Amino acid sequence: MSPAQGPTVLIVPGLRDHVEDHWQTHLARALPGAVTVPPLKADRLSRDARVAALDAALAAIAGPVVFAAHSAGVMIVAHWARNHGRPIAGALLVTPADLEVPLPPGYPSSEALAANGWLPVPRKPLPFPSILAASTNDPLGAFDRVAGLADAWGAELVDAGAVGHLNPAAGYGEWPPAMTFLRRLGVSC
Length: 189
Fold this sequence. Notes:
RBBP9/YdeN, AB_hydrolase_fold, hydrolase activity, globular, Rossmann fold
């Protein structure tokens, strides 16, 4: 996008990558010029591979960028920010998965997450403005723990209500508040 149009939105999915009726998929269709980090073909649980994929997608974008991350994608952004210096215009961080507590069945074990570099979760302030939307009934991240991440990262915490993990399994496809938050971060939408 040209600077007159505002930042490019870079969508950072979680570990399940691209889900057809997910709010991020709808967002990508609704925002001309939005870019999505492509799914990995190998090393799908590797934090390093996920961070490298984010960095490669970012390198292909000229101009300012705003991240739109969900679940483990939020953690990918936090890990990326520790070691990369490219200026970022902002980040919308939505229902981060709390990888420091055991996840429900069907998700990677704490041992697998640790072995693949996800732990510890970074707790340094993010070097860009961010809005963290947290659910009050997310099975993958208790509100108080996610609020602690927002505080550590210097992110504005937004109570998204009882939206589960804000995914199709929780009954969500399109999520209109995403556009409102992205506008606040300087995106023309």
